[in-house]
């Protein structure tokens, strides 16, 4: 996929607990990112995903998606939010020119 889409980076959601502490999944995500970093020639970036599932459920609800279907789509929608936030962060960063 990385080559097919000419990706410039891989963005991985970092699942902290709501209070900001690390969870078992936080450690697992960091481990996965480290492994990707060893085998990829592009940056592997971690982004806090604490409230993305909540926001994703809200978006799906506003779109009229049923509760049952929402359960199937919430992780994909949360991934979209993580990427949108990352791209907004890049766009807002001062140019390095």
Describe the structure.
Helices cover 55% and strands 10% of the residues. The protein is globular and about 40 Å long. The chain has helices at residues 24-39, 52-62, 67-92; strands spanning 10-14, 44-48. With 97 residues, it is mainly alpha-helical. The chain has a two-stranded parallel ribbon with strand order 1-2. The chain folds into two domains: 1-50, Nucleotidyltransferase, domain 5 (2-Layer Sandwich); 51-97. The protein contains three helices and two strands; from the N terminus they run βαβαα. Helix 2 crosses helix 3. The model has no long low-confidence stretch (mean pLDDT 93).
Proportion of residues in helical segments = 40-55%
> Residue-averaged pLDDT, rounded?
93
The low-confidence runs, each spanning 5 or more residues with pLDDT under 50, are none
Cα shape: globular
The total strand number stands at: 2
- Give the second-level CATH assignment, the architecture of the largest domain: 2-Layer Sandwich
Order of helices and strands: EHEHH
CATH homolog superfamily of the largest domain:
YqgF/RNase H-like domain
What CATH calls the topology of the largest domain is Nucleotidyltransferase, domain 5
> Any idea of the CATH class of the largest domain?
Alpha Beta
Annotation field: number of helices: 3
Structural class: mainly alpha
Topology summary:
Elements: E1 10-14, H1 24-39, E2 44-48, H2 52-62, H3 67-92
Parallel strand pairs: 1-2
Helix pairs in contact: 2-3
């Amino acid at each position: 996929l990385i080559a097919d889409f000419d990706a410039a980076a891989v963005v991985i959601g970092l699942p902290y607990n709501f209070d900001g502490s690390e969870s078992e999944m936080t450690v697992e995500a960091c481990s996965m990112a480290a492994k990707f970093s060893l085998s990829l020639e592009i940056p592997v970036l971690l982004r806090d995903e604490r409230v993305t599932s909540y926001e994703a459920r809200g978006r799906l609800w506003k779109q009229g998606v049923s509760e049952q279907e929402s359960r199937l789509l919430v992780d994909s929608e949360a991934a979209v939010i993580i990427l949108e936030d990352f791209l907004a962060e890049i766009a807002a960063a001062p140019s390095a020119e």
